[in-house]
Amino acid sequence: MTTSTRRLVVAAAAALVLSLGATACGSDGGKTGADTAPTATGSASAAAPKLSGEVNVFAAASLTGTFTELGKKFETNYPGVKVKFNFGGSSALAQSINAGAPADVFAAASTSTMKTVSDAGGVNGTAANFVRNTLTIAVPKGNPKHVATLKDLTTPGVKVALCAKEVPCGAAAVTALKAAGVDLTPVTLEQDVKGALTKVELGEVDASLVYRTDVKADAAKIDGVDFPEAEKAVNDYPIAALAKAPNKDGAAAFVAYVQSAEARQVLTAAGFQAP
Fold first, then answer.
1. Which long-range CB contacts under 8 A does 113-116 form with residues at least 24 apart?
2. What is the dihedral of CA 249, 253, 256, 261, to 10 degrees?
3. Quick one: DSSP state of residue 218?
4. What highest taxon heads this organism's lineage (predicted)?
5. SS (H, E, C) 95-137
6. Number of helices followed by number of strands (H, E) in the chain
7. In whole angstroms, what is the distance from residue 189 CA to residue 160 CA?
């Protein structure tokens, strides 16, 4: 092999080594880029709002049992969040909200009550109906006065408790009694449905008009007597995040949760109907 030939072979070998080295470096650089790029999971986690603090929920008295259970489930789903409830008559709660009471969510027992808050600019977005409820006659176990119809509530000696007409259960009672053509004078008017039910529990009255869900929750002490006119006075329950909610993310999340499949199971089991 001549000297010139040897020089050509050496040059070719050197070129091949350089080419292989460049390829290897390019391959390692691609791998490093993939390793340092953010993952899709990481991006999604960063985008999701992290909930914290308290979520103050003003809710109708008839939601006490179910919302207490839903509140615990919500806290489990969102560690670090505490749900606080203020249960009472829907109309009184609406007045408090309109007067500036600090609340994140309002769940009312009637659309007309929610409207008093939305008309005052207190609702963030639009309220959504999430359940409905109907009335029944609550009587002591065994129904000692043998109440079978709304007309029986006018029998002499039968003492009846109703909700005040300003609250949803009272307005529904007025509608049902009117549909039945019954003129009834109660011995007491209560500010929420729990008050009317308690009067029966304590034996202070012989009957009261309350929601079916309340009787179902208190089945150990109370019997319920259904009546056809109840279908004329069905109450839709709306829920909404409030415009001045201190915890806006928490409010939105709770409203969404109440409309979830998990919450629906709890509400249906308690006797509420789908909206």
1. 113/168, 114/238, 114/240, 116/91
2. 170
3. T
4. Bacteria
5. HHHHCCCCCCEEECCCHHHHHHHHCCCCECCCCEEEEEECEEE
6. 10, 10
7. 9
Reduced to 3 states (helix: H, G, I; strand: E, B; else coil), residue 40 is helix
User: What are 5-53's pLDDT values in tens digits?
Assistant: 444 333 444 443 334 344 444 444 433 333 333 333 333 333 446 899 9
Rg of the chain over Cα atoms, rounded to whole angstroms, equals: 32
Token readout for 275 is 């909206």
CA–CA dist 108, 114 (Å, integer): 6
Amino acid, res. 153: L
Model pTM score: 0.80
132 vs 8, 22, 58, 62, 275, CA distance in Å? 92, 72, 18, 11, 5
pLDDT of 183 strictly over 90 = yes
DSSP state of 260: S
∠ CA(217), CA(219), CA(224), 5° rounding? 100
Residue with tokens 């909610």: 245
pLDDT tier, 208 (very low <50, low <70, confident <90, very high otherwise)? very high
Question: Which residues lie across from 250 on neighbouring strands?
Answer: none
Write out the H or E segment, with its range, that includes residue 61.
Answer: none
- 126 and 240 in contact (C-beta within 8 Å)? yes
Q: Is 129 exposed, middle or buried (0-12, 13-18, 19+ CB in 10 A)?
A: middle
